[in-house]
Amino acid sequence: MAYMALGDLEREVMRQLWDAGEPLTVRQVHERLRERDLAYTTVMTVLSRLTKKRVVVQQNDDRAYKYAPAQSREEMTAGLMLDALTASGDQDAALAYFMGQLSPDALKAAIEAATKK
Amino acid sequence: MTALLLGALGLTLSLVVPGPLARAHWPDRAPAAAVLLWQSITLSAVLSALGVVLSAPYEVTRAAGSGKPVAAAALIGALVVAGVIILRLVVSLIGVTRRSRVRRARHRELVDLLDRAEQHRELGPDNLRVLDGALPLAYCVPGREPRVVLSNGVLQVLDRDQVDAVLAHEQTHLRHRHEVVMESFTAFYRAVPGPLRSRAPLDAVHLLLEMISDDVARRKAGAEPLRAALERLSDAVPLAEDARADPTGDARRRRLDRLTKPHTVSVGLNVAAALAAVGLLVLPTVILVVPWLDRALDHWPL
Questions:
Q1: Do A10 and B112 touch (CB under 8 A)?
Q2: Domain ranges in chain B?
Q3: Is B225 in contact with B162 (CB distance < 8 Å)?
Q4: What would the pLDDT profile of B46-58 be if each residue is shown by its tens digit?
Q5: pLDDT-derived band at B235, boundaries 50, 70, 90
Q6: I need a surface site. Which of A2, B18, B92, B280 has the fewest CB within 10 A?
Q7: Domain-by-domain residue ranges, chain A?
Q8: Residue from A99, A108, A111, A112 whose CB has the most chain B CBs within 10 Å, to mutate
Q9: Which residue of A10, A82, A101, A111 is the best one to mutate when testing the B interface, meaning the one whose CB has the most B CBs within 10 A?
Q10: Is-contact B176 B220, C-beta < 8 A?
Q11: What is the distance in angstroms between the Cα of A20 and the nearest Cα belonging to chain B?
């Protein structure tokens, strides 16, 4: 089996789920990652880790469990940026230290405008 | 007398000094020493408050000529209040540290999953993550496994030199563990009761930490690319109409001003500010607390 760090694997599996656009079974994910030459159980482990991280939801569909991303890539990205921006001294220690000192409110409004469909 | 003097010192340090110091411009030329001075001011204010709590009951009972039981009760009360103050600070610090750690861990987890950095390996650092999205955004997530995060928008609006300057700036925050400094000021801010609370130290220290990172980045990548990056990152954001005016516009202007001038870190100011910081901690102790302790221990009622 070609060596791949767990983090890279998780990112790769997420990418497959996002690209698929529909819930996938473990077998289907394994199939899509054919060229990576991964063990079936490895794919299963990665999917259960992602489920535990609440970024993937497991659906019980007839015979097999299917997995789907909890949010679209765009939604998750926008949520992450908002989280980075909502760091305030009143609430909590800043999460992140920014390059550029635009007001968080202005940035937040911009993100919301940018992600609105 | 000791209690009154310590009280006056504590109130001066927490109510009078922060405003003018936050507005002063000399710290722009000695940001590291100015951070030290802010830390010393804050610590000295806490010690003054503790000093008041411990010395006031003793002085009042002595002046009133109270008997030993009253003096003993006053002393015990004072120790309890001092304990509560210390406990409140510690609890606040633990809370802020823990909440930030949890939040950053989650943020790091998601950034790692969304990362597109494989397309940008040439940019360098292992801890760099690139997010999709046209909104230009650059920040770092501190911690034991730190990350520098750029949005794709940053790579579109900045050239390579400017991106390097941004990366150098963010890596400095991470290497110098600036989050520890910010967390301690945040914890203090949250522990102080409402009327005595001031955001001035928090905001001033944040700006100074940015300046420290700017100074390292300008040495590594040049002042001009850094200044251009700072200007573009803020300009390129499409401002929504209902967004409030930039409350930190002054901070941003101060950073840009420093970057247009030749390197102006001043040795003299650094030394003066550092001396002031040490003096604030040592002098009140030597002048007020030690003589008082000397007298008070002679009449220890317990």
A1: yes
A2: 2-237+248-298
A3: yes
A4: 999 999 998 888 8
A5: low
A6: A2
A7: 6-69, 73-115
A8: A99
A9: A101
A10: no
A11: 16
Own/partner contacts of A40-47, CB < 8 Å, gap of 24 or more, are: A42/A1, A42/A9, A43/A13, A46/A6, A46/A9, A46/A10, A46/A13, A47/A13
Q: Which CATH number fits domain A6-69: 2.60.40.10, 1.10.10.10, 2.60.370.10, 3.40.1400.10?
A: 1.10.10.10
Percent of chain B exceeding pLDDT 70 equals 94
Chain A residues 73-112 within an 8 A CB cutoff of chain B: 73-74, 76-81, 83-84, 89, 92-103, 105-107, 109-112
CA A60 to chain centre: 20
Report the complex ipTM: 0.83
Tell whether A72 lies on the interface with B, counting CB pairs under 8 A: no
Which amino acid would we find at residue B59? E
Nearest CB to B169; choose among A78, A94, A99 = A99
